[in-house]
Every structure is written in structure tokens, then in C-alpha cells.
Amino acid sequence: MARFTRKNARRGLAAVGALTVGALALAGCAGGSSESGDGDTLKLWHYEGEDSAMTKAWNEAIEVFEEETGATVEFEQKSFEQIQKTASQVLDSDAAPDLMEFNKGNATAGFLASTGLIADISDAVDEYGWADKLAPSLQTTAKYSEDGVMGGDTWYGIPNYGEFVGVYYNTDAFAEAGLEIPTTYDEFVDVLDAFVAQGVTPLAEAGAEYPLGQLWYQLALTQGDRQFVNDYQLYENPVDWQGPELTYATETLAEYVDKGYIASDVSSVKAEDAGVSFINGTAPIFVSGSWWYGRFVEEAGFDWTLQSFPDTQLSLGSSGNLWVVPENAANKELAYEFIDITMRPEIQAIIGNNGGVPVAADPSDITDPKSQELIAAFNGVLEDDGLSFYPDWPAAGFYDVIVQQLQGLVTGTQDAEATNANLGSEYEAGTADFR
């Protein structure tokens, strides 16, 4: 297996920049540290929006941290793209922050780990007991091998929240149509047929960005098992791109368009448009992520619910993005103290009561009924060991490949076999260094 080195950091950086949100992740703890309470400054970067659950929680964590340590937090708001595109250069310089949020996955956090740009934090994980707060499937994206493959033995980050993809149902629209929320896949298809018969396109979808690819992968997961996920995501065995899981997914997605479950112009629709079509009641069903939850609470003027995809224990999802500590950080110990504060139940509860998915909250602290529903759905996925990551993760740039190939499928310019052959060719090329 080829290993990333600093010599090919420039090539790897281009790969890192190719990944998008849709989708849409070496020294020890010693060195570069400072004692708490000595008035030092913690340089903190993250890219969450001002009104997000995470920002609300982390703002409170900043106040607690400054009061308890006597240190000052110097926070800089960054965009996701800023951090993705400049991480390798900035982290290899004296301008590196002490702590930053970074995307999980092989070509992102894994790449930084393999090049030595972020610190091995295993000692801090042991000291603070963070592993005890994280389910095994959440730990996968925080631990990497020396080659940057997630699921390794060494901790390089700590997730502060989780995320997963499920099915949003407009329960008011269902009631008006005389339909029940489905509990099995057969019932799900029956509901799709019933809405079509009433002149309604049931699925909010977007083929120009991540939602369509996530539906495609979810369909594959209905036919797969944990070994399929490990082969696809962790390169344990070759992936059969004409095998039953991926053939079913691609053929079924094409059928969804042919049967009118998805709009015929889906290839040009963006994620925002799909989300808005659910918010305004145009489409009664949306297969997408928990990151929409808070917005739907605020903007959807009807009753709705989120449930896991029917008849499968496997769901797209993972930990959220990671707290990582740059190897060149001046104040690593302060960074660890801040991470630990964000893992406290009271800080996790802020995430949970504002539409986020906390990873270490006390359930009794979650008082908002809608938030309780979200967290219950996520916990159900965790209990099934169901988090199965995202379809573009295995190879840098694979997100764009999935979008392009599925656009060809839904517009009818290529059939399922050709689509899978093209996807497989790009997947094999993009993962060759890891196999």
C-alpha cells in the first residue's frame, strides 16, 4: 500500500480540495503545550454557521474555558472551503491554530494524519476518557492508519456531534392523501405509487449535488451488509461494481425516475432546491441528512417526522467533523482542555436542544421534543451499528464522479451497467494507493 509523504503533499492537497461537504476526515501529546491558567491564548478555527447548534454549544464552551483556565480564546471563523484548500500549507507553518474543525475521512483528516500535519492525540484520549463517550462506529472516523485510512489504531481527532441520513416525511401531506408513514420498504414503494397516482412527485431530489448520490448509496445499503460497507469504504476486499448491491441501487434509481417518483429534471436540481421543495410542501418525502433538521424546525409550516430508511439496519452517516490538533500547535494542552469541555453533558445538551446530534449527551438533558425525536432516531442507528459513511469517501474527487455518472443515468444517456462500469473504473483508479 502506498503511503502519503510530505513529498507528495502537493498532489494530496489537490485531492483534498476536490472533496466537498455533500456529500454530499506524528508526534505524541508532548511538546508545544502550555499549562492551563497561565494566560496563554488558544487559537481556534471552525466553520460552523452562527446559528448552528454546534456554534451555540461551542460559544458556551469558550466562556467556560476562559473562566476555568484563565486563557483567552482567539477564534477565527473560516469557511469549509478555506480550510480544505489551505490546510496543508497553513498547518506546515507557524500560522497553524491550536485547534480546528476538519472534515473526517481518508482524503481529508486521513491525509493530514499520514503527512504528520495533525497530532496523534491517543494519549489525550486515554487521559480524558473520550473513547468511553463514543460509539464504535463514531470512533472509525477519528482513528487512522499510518497510510491515512480511517478505522486505524491511532486517534487523530474527536467528533463532537454526529450525523446521519434518513427519510423526512410530511405527515400533514400524508394525512391529506389518506396515507400512513411506511414502516417497510414495500410500504414505502406503495406510498410513492399512491402519491404519483394523485399527481404528486413524492421525492424531493437533487441530481446536480449530493442528495441523489446519497439515495443511490442508501439503496445499495438495503442490499448490503457490514462487510459490503467495509469493502467499499475501508478497502478490505475488491468491490464488485456489477454485483447485486450496486446493480440494484443503480437500476432502482433509474426506475424511480421512470415511475415518476423523482422529477424528470432532477439532473439540474441542487440540494437547496430539493430542501426548499420539502419545506414549501411541494414534495412530501425527502431522503437526506440530519443537518436539515434544525432548518426544517424553523421553516417548515407543517408537521413532519424523520425516520431511518425502511427495512435496513445500514444508514448513511458518521461522526460529525473532527476537532484536530495541528502538529505545529503552540498550545496542545489547552486544545485538549477545550475539547474536553465540549464533551461535557451540559455542552452536548446545547447541541441536542438546538437541532444537532450530540455524541455524549445525557438523554435527560434533552428537553425539546423535536430534538428528542432526532436523537432517538440517531441512537437507533448507532444501536444497530448502522453508520455506513458516504458514497464519495473512498477516493478523492469521487463526489464529482458520482454526480456526473448519476446525471447520465437519470437523463437516459447511459444505462445502469454503463453507469456502474464508469463508477467502478474511477473508484479503482482513486483507491489504487490504498489496496
TrEMBL record:
<dbReference type="InterPro" id="IPR006059">
    <property type="entry name" value="SBP"/>
</dbReference>
<feature type="signal peptide">
    <location>
        <begin position="1"/>
        <end position="27"/>
    </location>
</feature>
<dbReference type="InterPro" id="IPR050490">
    <property type="entry name" value="Bact_solute-bd_prot1"/>
</dbReference>
<dbReference type="Pfam" id="PF13416">
    <property type="entry name" value="SBP_bac_8"/>
</dbReference>
<protein>
    <submittedName>
        <fullName>Extracellular solute-binding protein</fullName>
    </submittedName>
</protein>
<keyword id="KW-0732">Signal</keyword>
